[in-house]
Structures are given as C-alpha cells and as structure tokens.
Amino acid sequence: MPWFQRTITLTARRRGFHLITREVVSAMPAIADVTVGQLQVFIQHTSASLTINENADPDVRVDLESMINAIAPENFPYIHTMEGPDDMPAHVKSSLLGASLLVPVTDGRLNLGTWQGIYLAEHRDNATPRRLVLTLQGE
What pLDDT shows up at residue 1? Predict the structure, then answer.
C-alpha cells in the first residue's frame, strides 16, 4: 500500500483540551483499507500540542488543563513576552506534550484503547485555526 498524506485545518478553538479523534479519522478515509499500519498525526504549531488520553469523562479535560497551567504558569518570569502572557507558557506546554502522535491502525481502525482519544491541546487564549499533517502507511 502506498503512503497517504493529507494536511487538514482544524477550526480555532478556545484554550483547553479538545477531542479530535473523529475529525482525524474522517479526514483520512484510507484508514478503512489498512489491515496493519500506523497513522502519524503532526501539528504544525508551537503553541498547541497533541496528546492521547481518556475520552469518556469530560472532567479529565478540565483537570488536564488545570494541571498543565500549574506546571507552566503565566506569572513565571519569562523573557519571551512580546506576544502576550499566554505565549511562552504555550510554548512550554507544547514542548511537554509534544507535536506528534503515532497511532497503530488495525483492521481498518485506529487501534486506540477503549477509553482513549486524540486531543488537540490548545494553549493560547486567542487561538488561530490549527494545521495537522496526517501520514498513513500500512498494508
């Protein structure tokens, strides 16, 4: 099977953790034809990130946002402050969570655990639309 690659743009979202699994799968219909493979999801931004976590209880999203804000607070004495008080903490959060995920594909589906979902972690108060590069390989 050849490699498939597609860039998608997610609508701008408010600060927080947003479940995007369905958007990713919808954007890459070739997943249905893969028996065994992998999907890489890469975000082309430095102030938002990707993560896989619990997809059932919305309280998890609230707790993740609270915890990441405690780890990288806006009131830290950052040197890079030209783009506002949420910018440098957003870069720190992005570095901690990461810009890329690799998800196994099995029998035409993402092989996530029962309670797992793909999240966009938006770290800016006034975010822009976010671009994802989806790369699928498998047979």
Answer: 72
pTM: 0.96
pLDDT of residue 132: 99
Tally of CB atoms within 10 A around 132 = 24
Please, which residues have CB within 8 angstroms of residue 82's CB and are 6 or more apart in sequence?
none
Domains of the chain, first to last: 4-138 (2.60.120.460)
Residue 134 has which token pair? Answer: 């989806």
